[in-house]
Design a protein that fits this description.
By secondary structure, the chain is mostly helical. It is about 90% helix and about 0% strand. The longest helix is centred in the middle third of the chain and has 45 residues, at about 15-55.
């Protein structure tokens, strides 16, 4: 970024580099915040769509449907936990293998 064009003045090189770092850091922070917000909104949309789908097509009372959704969330959590533990085991095996070499 050419700070001379932004401020319309010739700046000391150290000041120019400092301003570039500040501006790029702030821009990066704003982009990160915006992306996190967008992901949260998308996640909520997907969860709402799933809930609406189950509520529309699952027979029974509202309590039955909510129980199904709770079971589904718990099942998904267990699957993620199993995946994580398998990854740790694979990592330990790989570390042992590389330690032998």
């Amino acid at each position: 970024m050419d700070m001379t064009k932004v401020f319309g003045a010739v700046l000391d090189r150290n000041v120019e580099e400092g301003l570039e770092l500040l501006v790029s850091g702030r821009f990066s922070e704003l982009c990160k915040t915006r992306l996190e917000t967008f992901r949260a909104i998308e996640s909520r949309k997907k969860h709402q769509e799933l809930e609406d789908l189950v509520m529309a097509h699952h027979p029974g009372t509202r309590e039955d449907r909510e129980e199904f959704l709770n079971w589904f969330a718990e099942y998904e959590g267990e699957a993620n936990e199993d995946f994580y533990l398998l990854g740790i085991r694979d990592g330990i095996r790989a570390a042992k293998f590389f330690a032998v070499i």
